[in-house]
Design brief:
The complex is a heterodimer of chains A (about 270) and B (about 325).
Chain A (H helix, E strand, L loop, with lengths): L2 H16 L2 H24 L4 H4 L3 H12 L3 H7 L4 H40 L2 H5 L5 H39 L7 H10 L3 H13 L5 H8 L4 H12 L6 H25 L9
Helix pairs in contact in A: 1-8, 2-6, 2-8, 4-6, 6-8, 6-10, 6-11, 6-12, 8-10, 9-13, 10-11, 10-13
Chain B lengths: L2 E11 L4 E11 L3 E6 L5 H8 L7 E6 L8 H5 L2 E4 L11 H11 L4 H14 L15 H13 L5 E5 L7 H16 L4 E6 L2 H7 L2 E6 L2 E6 L1 H8 L3 E7 L4 H9 L10 E3 L2 E6 L4 H11 L4 E6 L4 H15 L1
Parallel strand pairs in B: 3-7, 3-8, 5-6, 6-7
Antiparallel strand pairs in B: 1-2, 1-4, 8-9, 10-12, 10-13, 11-12
Helix pairs in contact in B: 3-4, 4-5, 8-11
The chains are: A mainly alpha (about 270), B alpha/beta (about 325).
Bound molecules: adenosine-5'-triphosphate and magnesium ion.
């Protein structure tokens, strides 16, 4: 394995991606809305009830929801008043699945660009003639998407931690974010997530016509997370520490499976549609 | 002569098409080898096969002593390829494009800077090196792609349409470079081209491919001798023997395929090929015609190419 070649390809991919508006725009805008604007909207919501059409009744409903959740969540939310519960519930629990969208989205957009996009732009051919092995090419392409997704997620997390605490400060009066569940999420689940986006994209890229095409197919990886979000909001489930840990385990296993499948069929010739 | 490329019964099929069909040939060290063929003849596919980028359906090959299927990376470290489309990262600058590939081709760190500058100078791109390639003209991209193919001083160079998109001066410069690389520095050049005039001028030997099959192989001169079926020849003889000679010429339909024409003191006829010249000469001498001069009009690869094409058409 030639680490020098792998790092050269990663450097190239990241440089190319960073110059690509079609890729960078969603990578910047979505986190900005989720992590910077949303915390302030959420903390203001209960007080701007008229604007948002939220009544005391709704706040009670949130309380009802929480009452149905696991002991861990109830324990954490015990000592808070109605408004605080609303804020903490949203910023800590409801946001968690949304946060997971970021590494998924970033990885699949970048993989769409670096597999299908390169095929479309025909920039891949010269790369195929370099003294790299198929495996090195595959690993380099995976790693560049993985690293970019993790970098965005990490920056997003720090940004969000600051914004959530700042926005909630007037009501909570102390640092409430991140809790243990989030720490597990960030250290265990989030690093696994890009693997899903990348794995799926590797499998579909050989069939996709180009970047847009691959990107659309790739966006299905976000679906499971959307279900998670719905589950969380509807109270059907709640993200407790054990559940998050289990979720991470499942994702890591899926990563392994997808990447094994992808690497098995990855041949440099396929990047030419051959 | 050592063969740097040995191809034996190489075949590559895609779904319905057989892109390369039972191809066998050798390319020798230091030679400029022309690979000719119509669009879709299988030239690019062959280059891909020879570099281990795609797999053959059947057959075998050795390139620089390697089996491309097994030792692809080691082989590719010693070949340079100018791909059909420049395949540059258009969002990066020329310099970045070259420096990344210098890394991939393991050009020693200390030499990278010097080497890139050398090549940018060679291809007249030095003053545009920090610009994004997306803003380059077609010919500039092509020149940059050539520079990239040469970064690691490959001993075997594949050029898929080296001068396509270049203006006459740039094309001339590239052709000079190809000759210099082969003649002075001992590189072997595998040149895919449609440009027959260029092939005739540059190549030591050429192969003609038709629907993946090798239909001709040899030096340009050999091929013209072998395949040109219409050869205009001027014959200067003693004025007084002209009538008699005309008579003889008309009686040799196998050799002389047109009605002889008298032009200021000489006769112009179309012969059925190069081999007809000595045959005709022998007959004329035998009949005591005093021949002062016999000159064949120059023939070229283009005629070979069309002759081969016509042959195919008439078979079908
Ligand atoms: N990846 C592929 N999938 C299917 N068919 C292919 C593929 N690559 C090449 N072919 C087919 O193989 C044949 C040979 O193509 P190739 O590109 O080698 O021709 P070429 O001689 O380079 O032509 P040109 O002069 O136009 O560049 C063509 O019929 C082409 O359609
Ligand atoms: Mg071609």
């Amino acid at each position: 394995m030639n680490a020098h070649a792998i790092s050269a390809i990663i450097r190239k991919d990241l440089k190319v991606v960073s110059q690509n508006k079609g890729v960078m725009l969603p990578i910047i805008i979505l986190p900005l809305i989720l992590f910077v604007i949303l915390p302030w909207v959420v903390t203001l919501m209960p007080f701007l009830g008229d604007v948002f059409g939220i009544t005391v009744d709704d706040l009670n409903k949130v309380q009802d929801l929480i009452n149905r959740m696991g002991a861990g969540v109830q324990q954490e939310l015990a000592g808070y008043d109605q408004y605080q519960v609303f804020v903490v519930y949203f910023l800590v629990y409801v946001m968690a699945p949304f946060f997971m969208i970021i590494p998924l989205m970033v990885s699949s957009v970048i993989a769409a660009d670096s597999f299908a996009g390169e095929k479309e732009r025909k920039t891949m051919e010269a790369l195929l003639y370099t003294p790299t092995t198929d495996r090195e090419l595959f690993i380099a392409k995976l790693l560049s998407g993985w690293l970019a997704a993790l970098a965005v997620a990490l920056v997003g997390f720090v940004l969000y931690a600051i914004m959530a605490n700042a926005a909630g400060w007037s009501q909570i009066g102390r640092i409430f974010f991140p809790n243990t569940m989030w720490l597990v999420l960030i250290s265990w689940v989030v690093p696994a997530l890009p693997g899903l986006g990348l794995g799926v994209m590797v499998l579909v890229s050989s069939r996709a016509q180009g970047f847009q095409d691959a990107n659309q197919i790739g966006s299905v990886v976000v679906l499971p997370v959307v279900f998670l979000a719905i589950g969380q909001v509807s109270g059907a489930m709640s993200l407790s520490v054990p559940l998050v840990f289990l979720l991470g385990l499942v994702i890591w296993l899926l990563d392994g499976l997808l990447i094994w499948l992808g690497s098995r069929s990855f041949k440099r010739g396929r990047m030419l549609g051959a | 002569m050592t063969a740097v490329i040995k191809i034996n019964q190489l075949t590559r099929c895609f779904k319905e098409t057989t892109a390369v069909d039972q191809l066998s040939l050798e390319v020798f060290a230091g030679e400029i080898f022309g690979f000719l063929g119509h669009n879709g003849a299988g030239k690019t596919t062959t280059v891909r096969l020879l570099n281990g980028v795609i797999e053959p359906t059947s057959g075998s090959m050795r390139v620089l002593g390697f089996d491309p299927q097994v030792d692809g990376p080691a082989l590719r470290a010693r070949t340079g390829v100018l791909t059909e489309t420049p395949s540059m990262d258009e969002r990066l600058t020329a310099w970045d494009n070259l420096s990344i590939y210098a890394d991939l081709y393991r050009v020693p760190r200390v030499e990278v800077h010097k080497r890139i500058n050398e090549l940018l100078d060679e291809f007249d791109l030095a003053d545009r090196a920090k610009e994004r390639v997306g803003g380059y003209s077609k010919g500039m991209k092509q020149r940059l792609a050539l520079a990239r193919a040469l970064l690691h001083k490959p001993e075997l160079l594949f050029l898929d349409e080296a001068t396509s998109g270049l203006d006459p001066i740039a094309a001339h410069h590239v052709n000079d470079l190809i000759v210099r690389l082969a003649r002075r520095e001992g590189h072997t050049v595998f040149l895919c081209t449609h440009n027959l005039v260029e092939a005739q001028k540059l190549c030591d030997r050429v192969a003609v491919l038709e629907h993946g099959r090798l239909v001709a192989l040899g030096t340009p001169a050999e091929l013209t001798r072998q395949y040109v079926r219409r050869l205009d020849v001027q014959i200067e003889i003693n004025e007084e023997q002209i009538e008699g000679t005309l008579h003889i010429l008309r009686s040799l339909p196998r050799l002389v395929i047109s009605e002889p024409v008298r032009t200021n003191g000489a006769l112009t006829v179309t012969l059925s090929g190069h081999e007809a010249i000595p045959d005709l000469l022998e007959i004329l001498v035998h009949k005591s015609i005093r021949v002062y001069r016999i000159a064949a009009k120059e023939t070229n690869l283009e005629q070979v190419y069309f002759a081969l094409h016509d042959e195919k058409e008439s078979v079908q």
